[in-house]
Structure prediction request, 307 residues.
Amino acid sequence: MAKRGLFVINPHSGKCQIRNKLIDIIDIFVSSGIDVNIYTTQERKDAVKIIKQKGDKFDVVILSGGDGTLSESVKAVMTIPEYKRPVIGYIPAGTTNDFATTLNIPKNMIKAAKNIAAGKVFKCDVGKFNSDYFIYIAAFGAFTDVSYGTPQQMKNYFGHFAYVMEGIKRVSSLSSYHIKMEYEGNAIEGDFIYGMIANTKSVAGIKNLVMENVKLDDGLFEIVLIKMPQTPFELQNILAGIVTNDLTNDMFLCFRAPYVKITADNEMPWTLDGEFGGDDKDVYIENKKQAVGILVEAKAAEKAAKK
Prediction:
């Protein structure tokens, strides 16, 4: 019996490469028994609308776009009752593709399509942020607006380096947030310039920046807080830790938890999966264990589950 597939395409993501590969990709799906229905996004948040409207009528929702398109689609899929929830196939077509990197999904579109056609379902954790959702990171503080504040044309032309250039502009304007974070009977309070609640091995294209031994289906977040530097030496320690992917010095707090409650003195701007997530001072973030199925190459699924 043929599978029913909804193919949601963001034709403007990355360098619009999907347009040159589309016929080959569709042929891969059709020849593998997927009855493909195609929808091209027309505007921001369009993927959410179409998946909410039609997603429960399909076995698989196939996405072509960047991390933003994937995040939108996961939000929509999570509104569908679990017994009707389709699995997700992802063809990376963005600038950074953090989630694809984490799950070893090929950036080559043809290979990614073949993985979907013959792939294995990997049950992935999803984050719930108050009433919203995210697939790989919720963050506040320094540089969190770089992803959504970088012009698309700049991303297309310079690639990952565009994020670096945009981030450099923000070094001179570091500010801190006073927060209290509670989790599993523990509490942390202090001034922090950055915090991330993550379920990923790659952030802004940088691998292994979060923590070691990240598992995407264990029901736990990897949480990193960066303290407000009081001296040039402390700032140097922060920069050195980020550059060397070593977050063990005293300026970083790193731990795992299935949920966190965050209370801030003032509203903080948040980013969810690289997109603006609103201004909040009271946040409850919960890990929804193995909430969404992602189609990946069988070996990649086994590797993601073990690490």
